[in-house]
Amino acid sequence: MELSVLLLFALLTGLLILLARGRPKARGHLPPGPRPLPFLGNLLQMDRKGLLKSFLRFQQKYGDVFTVYLGPRPVVIICGTEAIREALVDQAEVFSGRAKIAVVDPVVQGHGVVFANGERWKALRRFSLATMRDFGMGKRSVEERIQEEAQCLMEELRKSQGALQDPVFYFHSITANIICSIVFGKRFDYRDPQFLRLLELLFKSFVLISSLSSQLFELYSSFLKHFPGSHRQIYKNLQEVNGFIDRSVEKHRETLDPSAPRDFIDCYLLRMEKDKSDPRSQFDHRNLIMSALSLFFAGTETTSTTLRYGFLLMLKYPHIAERVHKEIDRVIGSDRPPALDDRAQMPYTDAVIHEIQRFADLIPIGVPHMVTKDTHFRGYILPKGTEVYPILSSALHDSRYFEKPDDFNPDHFLDASGAVKKNDAFMPFSIGKRICLGEGIARTELFLFFTTILQNFSVASPVAPEDIDLTPQESGVGNVPPKYQIQFLPRQRG
């Protein structure tokens, strides 16, 4: 009901403005697209199922590059593998700007490594990559952390004794603990009340950010921000997480040993101290809080959501899960935990994980970009500051690169000899200069958690495979898998 009321307000306001304004004018020479109305933009041509459905429908009519008016502002939409690569790789620097996401902008306001721009972004990204590498990314120590966390998970799953479970709790806990160990220098017990509260806040925020109401807010944020809605709950949730981070930073200050930094926060505090006399330094308290929030949120939600989709797919396609079981038994056996080196000897399992990422399509419309200067692209002129949406879903479902893009089929990533093959359309972490900071750690987590669970357990559901629905619960900035129940049954080996 709330959404309908807000939409009615928007429509009435737009009709009033129609009398006073002509068609929206864009600078430069933007690609063609559906004809907008003043204030309303292309609202009336949008699919009621959300932005992604709308963009894919417009692609069929206008091609891989077109302009859509989200409310009064023009946004250039880029679809398809070749066009996205031309922008984000071939012209990586000019397409490296970050545009806002309206429902989270009141919290981040251009701070932190994910939403910063210019020199602030470059400095924070260099620092974050180097620091995360020092604390495990790219080194064996992160593998050891994940292996240890995976064994903690095995203990929890054994306690379930094959009862039906909601997998959200388990997958959130393990992925959050890995990023917590790097950012905060500690892991949490799965029953820690503070930890459970943080996970609840992150999960609810991700669902709300991906909701239809948040997509409508993206069109009319300057107007809708004055009314109640999911944007206010997102703000409240993320500010509560920021409060936890702020308290953690203060504890770090009190116990900091400059000769032995323990984690990301310690390293950042040392950098702040080093740069304190430099007025141009980007290393201040606000950027620390927002960078920690970005790493914590992204590091938890992305991998845990992919695992949730992955095990739903194993329930849907038990013959695929059985082939993974056989490969695990052949390569790893039951006497030792999986290790990252095993991946090279397990092409089928590796292809299954790739296909889970492709099919899950976690960030379907991509995190929005912005061009950093006037830019020529495919015969058009995009003025500096133009927002650009690279529709990652259109690459992950590109029929020119995947034989049956709407089907779940690990053969998409296997060549004729059964080896894993590279595919240019595979970009679940995006590509170019804004590629996900945590790609390396996420790929390690997915392999080790996925194989450790299937080494020890079979999965089952009371729902017949043919009746399992894979339709996302929400599909906006993120794809949120449907809720489901799963049984983890200890494997019986002969």
TrEMBL record:
GO terms for biological process: epoxygenase P450 pathway; xenobiotic metabolic process. The keyword Transcription regulation does not apply. PROSITE patterns: CYTOCHROME_P450. It is an enzyme of class 1 (oxidoreductase). It catalyses: an organic molecule + reduced [NADPH--hemoprotein reductase] + O2 = an alcohol + oxidized [NADPH--hemoprotein reductase] + H2O + H(+). Residues 1-22 form the signal peptide. The keyword Membrane applies. Heme binds at C436. It is a peripheral membrane protein. InterPro entries: Cyt_P450, Cyt_P450_CS, Cyt_P450_E_grp-I, Cyt_P450_E_grp-I_CYP2B-like, Cyt_P450_sf, Cytochrome_P450_fam2. Its EC number is 1.14.14.1. Keywords: Endoplasmic reticulum, Heme, Iron, Membrane, Metal-binding, Microsome, Monooxygenase, Oxidoreductase, Signal. One of its GO terms (molecular function) is heme binding. One of its GO terms (cellular component) is endoplasmic reticulum membrane. It is found in: Endoplasmic reticulum membrane; Microsome membrane. Its cofactor is heme. SUPFAM superfamilies: Cytochrome P450 (SSF48264). Cytochromes P450 are a group of heme-thiolate monooxygenases. In liver microsomes, this enzyme is involved in an NADPH-dependent electron transport pathway. It oxidizes a variety of structurally unrelated compounds, including steroids, fatty acids, and xenobiotics. Belongs to the cytochrome P450 family. This is Cytochrome P450.
